[in-house]
Amino acid sequence: MTMEYNKKIILEDGQEYYGYGFGADKSSVLEIVFNTSMVGYQEILSDPSYTYQAVVMTYPLIGNYGMANDDFERDTPTIGALIVREYNDEPSNFRSAKTLDSVMKEFGIAGIYGIDTRKLNRSIRDFGSRKVLITDACVSLEEGLKILKKTDIPHDAVSRVSCHKIITSQAEKQKYHVVAIDCGMKMNIVRSLNKKDCKVTVVPWNTSAEEIMKLKPDGIFISNGPGDPKDVTETVDTVKELIGKRPIFGICLGHQIISLAKGAKTYKMKFGHRGGNHPVRNLETGKIEITSQNHSYAVDAESIAATDLTVTHINLLDNTVEGVKCDKDKLLSVQYHPESAPGPQDSDYLFDRFIAMIQKEQENA
């Protein structure tokens, strides 16, 4: 006997997709996006950059290797919802401690499976990211559209996911001290810096430049995070004050914040970049890197020309800016994730470049 659909999604343009619920039984208005990764649903689920977003996985089978205790990017996932073609609730993996369904129930994250995700992802590709209502199958289209029209996506994502107190992560061999501004940082960034012999002091997103300098950092890191970079004016202003005082490295949202602090502009993309398979050309070496990405906003290439930033990387799929630098001010940033987790390891060298900037600064002191 075929089960009756018990959940559905309603898009702003009136499209409806019916499916079955897993995870938390709740209704939400979110931004719908897709992710092209073939593995890594646990890291996606626990990446703060997906706050207020419903993520559609293009890979059809999700849940089959369960959830491992060591693979969370943050202890408290804040993703809006997960939409998949086929959900597997009987994982086969010796590291698995829980099912995906149980974790989503624990943290109040809704899920829907059984949807034609190929058709849905084509819709996002063709018409862009937009608001979606995740709700019960019995909710009428008329009622759902009214809810979508009157409900706005919040703009407090960074303040919601950032730490609220200073956190320190020690390295086994501490050579350098990096202060990381947490805008929704993945923990593998901290682990990557620890492996490079950096003690990492993580501070909240709205920490002032004066407070950061009192911590006596050798270098400053600006993290990834959710939402529009223009929503975090406090962080942009802090970075403006810090530029030139210490080497600064930014990733994803951090890249956008550094660019805004330097006078460049950002814009919202049609459907963003999400997945572990984006080709990026390093303009300094000519090499192609396969990168892991997760963002809805990009730095405007034309606006960079009016600054002293130099473009270092471009995306080969759409020619968007993927990296900038300013040697004079000891700045380095990329739009993608060199720490990946999971994903390609092509770009780990960027952490070494950051360390080299710190070493050079110390030698010249």
Strand percentage = 25-35%
Average pLDDT works out at 96
Give the oligomeric state: single chain
Low-confidence regions: none
Structural class based on helices, strands and sheet pairing: alpha/beta
Cα gyration radius (Å): 21 Å
Total DSSP helices: 11
Helix proportion: 25-40%
For the biggest β-sheet, the strand order reads: 12-14-13-15-16-21-20-19-17-18
Total count of strands: 21
Question: What's the main sheet like?
Answer: 10 strands, mixed
N-to-C CA distance: 75 Å
Approximate shape:
globular
What's this, in brief?
This protein has 365 residues and is α/β, with parallel strands linked by helices.
Quick tags:
alpha/beta; 33% strand; 365 residues; seven-stranded mixed beta barrel
Fold and architecture overview:
Helix 8 crosses helix 9 (253-261). It is globular and about 70 Å long. It is of the alpha/beta class. The mean pLDDT is 96. The protein starts with 6 loop residues before the first strand and ends with a helix. Strands 12-14-13-15-16-21-20-19-17-18 form a ten-stranded mixed β-sheet, sandwiched between helices. It has a seven-stranded mixed β-barrel with strand order 1-2-10-7-4-3-11. Helices cover 25% and strands 33% of the residues. A hairpin with a 4-residue loop joins strand 20 (321-326) and strand 21.
